[in-house]
Amino acid sequence: MTPNRPLLTLRPTTKLNTMKNLITIAILLLSPMIFAQPEANYDESKVPKFPLPDPLTTFSGNPIANKTQWEENRRFEIFQFFERQVYGKVPDRLDEYSFKLWEESDDAYGGKARRKQVAISLTKNKRTITYNLLIYLPKGNPKAPVFLGYNFYGNHTVTDDPKVPITKAWVSNNESFGITDHKATEATRGVRKHRWAIEKMLDNGYGLATIHYGEVDPDKNDFSDGLHQLFYKDGQVKPKTNEWGSIAAWAFGLSKAMDYLENDTNISDVIVFGHSRLGKAALWAGATDKRFAGVISNNSGCGGAALSKRKFGETVARINNSFPHWFAGSFKKYGNNERTLPVDQHQLLALVAPRPLYVASAAEDRWADPKGEFLSAYHASKVYALYGKQGIDSPEMPAIDQPLQNTVAYHIRSGKHDVTDYDWEQYITWAKTFVK
């Protein structure tokens, strides 16, 4: 039987070596305390005191008094900061892109909807990726508005429609869905249809356009596939420090989908929507592409709608540690150092102005910091006021399941981190009034 070996063998042949060994032991003993994340804070009394950056005061201290000053000065510098220091900059232009309508039918959802399936191909440096856009449009409405959003497990998971193929892209393993080896199967058809109230949209004159986000950029800390690798120079294996992470890549994919949608004669306004990490992508897409007529963030949390400086629930350090591929490398220096951030997420929301914006939270989703999401929408509203648009007037959160609907809208619903019929009922009602 082989005896147990010591984890560390010390040979203190000199006083210097002895000191080095003692330091090594100390590091080994203390490293769990040094590197372990503290418990997440869910206590409002422990939220740090912090000055919130004013959207209407420039980095150099000059006040912004009107929408022209906002657009020509303040909006530009805020956008540049988020682009270079948070989400990362798109490194170059595509060489070419194309669209192929490869399937179309008028028999979807019992004949009440038209279905279109479009392949979007992006090419750079003689490398190409292709992802699929699934569209349902209400029949009887020759030019319908649509909600555009990513799904997590494949277009086939949002519907029982057998005409939608199973994605061949990388998907996250999910024991409850029977997904192993990162491959979707027929058994996953329709497993996420509860998150997409497609018939409710159709009955209200709206369509849905959706994409599996893994076809644009697989959600893993590996930049060797997906959108990023199209842009690499010789020998490059990952983006540069201030270049795009996955959230910016997903936002880019939404903008290229918009290139198709704005030229589809059956589609009018496009409202970009996202849940959780894809809510972060929807917000950045709305900030970078003004063609989106409205923006919806559903439970987007840290790096999305929630204020970073509150350090409530998920924090900058936690999100960069758990998902190092989501943001630009330059964002990591603000982990456990949020006080030095010259911006916060209410200024991201302000970049959407004057277009309609909806932020939604869930009462049981404390990780995403509902209060921080609400306060972001509240503090962004002063930019909307420059345009004569009504936002959120009071810093007091509304009651659960009591939505505030203006050009800037907010609700916190009962329940957990998810997308529900209740959410979609609010989004449809709001869109009918404010997205025109």
Automatic annotation (TrEMBL):
Lineage top rank: taxon: Bacteria
**Has the keyword RNA-binding been applied to this entry?**
no
- 4-O-methyl-glucuronoyl methylesterase-like domain: residues covered: 228-388
**Annotated InterPro entries:** AB_hydrolase_fold (IPR029058), GCE-like_dom (IPR054579)
Question: Which SUPFAM superfamilies does UniProt cross-reference here?
Answer: alpha/beta-Hydrolases (SSF53474)
One matching Pfam family is: GCE_fung
Record keywords: Hydrolase, Serine esterase, Signal
Query: What Gene Ontology molecular function terms does this protein carry?
Result: carboxylic ester hydrolase activity
Name recorded for this polypeptide: 4-O-methyl-glucuronoyl methylesterase-like domain-containing protein
Q: Which organism is it from?
A: Pseudozobellia thermophila
High-level lineage: Bacteria, Pseudomonadati, Bacteroidota, Flavobacteriia, Flavobacteriales
